[in-house]
Inverse folding.
């Protein structure tokens, strides 16, 4: 598995619009064959902090995701909503083993 975690600090006046656009992107991403999970989380105490937890079968599936029209639509829609640049960190799976636990749902 290939995991991408993205943290976004959003301008307070755009939080709801950012979340709405991100949910649209997440729902479309879940339809991609290489995507296993896409969570959108918001800070409990910092409502302007939004976190994505994305899981893909392979690194190449994430690269393919970034070429989808819905990704470009999201990226364009939210470009002025950010208070700071997004921070993305990529991970490779260690545990649990990639043994089918993440069957497509």
């Amino acid at each position: 598995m290939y995991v991408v975690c993205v943290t976004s600090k959003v301008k307070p006046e755009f939080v709801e619009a950012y979340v709405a656009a991100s949910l649209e992107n997440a729902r479309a991403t879940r339809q991609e064959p290489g995507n296993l999970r896409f969570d959108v989380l918001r800070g409990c105490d910092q409502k302007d902090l939004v976190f994505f937890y994305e899981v893909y079968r392979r690194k190449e599936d994430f690269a393919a995701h970034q070429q989808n029209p819905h990704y470009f639509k999201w990226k364009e829609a939210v470009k002025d909503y950010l208070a700071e640049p997004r921070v993305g960190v990529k991970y490779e799976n260690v545990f649990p083993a990639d043994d089918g636990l993440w069957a497509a749902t």
Observations:
- The chain has one domain: 2-92.
- The mean pLDDT is 93.
- The helical segments are 15-29, 59-65, 69-78.
- The first helix runs from residue 15 to 29.
